[in-house]
Sequence to fold (207 residues):
Amino acid sequence: QQLRAILRASAFGSVQLLYPMISNLDELLAANKLLEECRHELRRERVSFDEAMPIGIMIETPAAAMIADILAQEIDFFSIGTNDLIQYGSAVDRLNEKIADLYQPTHPGILRLIKQVVCAADEANVSVGVCGEMAGDPFIVPLLVGLGVRHLSVSAPLAPPVKYVIRKLEVPQAVALANQALSSKTSNEVMSACKRLIAAVAPDLDA
Fold:
C-alpha cells in the first residue's frame, strides 16, 4: 500500500523513494521486485505515476557501507544515515548515558566508512547525501564536504548556520581537512581540526 501510494503521488510532483535500513543486496532486490509489481498493477489499472522516479537507499549499517559499490548498481542515490551508522559502527547505544562518550561522529573509522560510500557513489555516478546529526553540525559540515558529500538533510532550525559555514568555506580547505581526518588516529584529533578550520573561516559562528 505504501509503495502504491508513493508511486501514485509521483504523478503530481517531484518524488523520490528511499528504502530504509538496507543491509544487503538481497533486501534491495526484493524491495525493487515488489516495487515493480506495484508499477505493473498501476499500469494495468491505468493509474498515472512517474516511471523514472528515483530510487535510493539509506546507508545505516557498516555492512551496507562496505558493499556500497554493489548496492550502487541497483539504485539512483544514497542517503547516509549517520546516527545509526555511528551507533552500529561503534557498537554504542547513543541513548545510554553510561557510554554516551563513546558515540563519536568524528571517529576515524566512521569517516572511512562515509568516504567509502562516497567513492562507490562517484564510481557508479549516483548521488550521495548525509542525514542525521552530523549533517546539521556546522563544525562537522566542512569535513563532510571534504569527504565529497554534496547533499545535506538538516532540520529547519539548523539550516542557517550550516548554510553560513558552507558559504564561508573553500572546497580545497574542506578537502585538506578531510585528508587530515582520514589519517588521524582519534576522534578528538579530528574534532580539534574541525574547530580550527571553523575558527579560521567563520570565527563569529556561535558555538
Summary: The beta strands are 17-19, 55-59, 77-81, 127-131, 151-152. The CA atoms of residues 10 and 50 lie 5 Å apart. DSSP finds ten helices and five strands in the chain. The first strand starts at residue 17 and ends at 19.
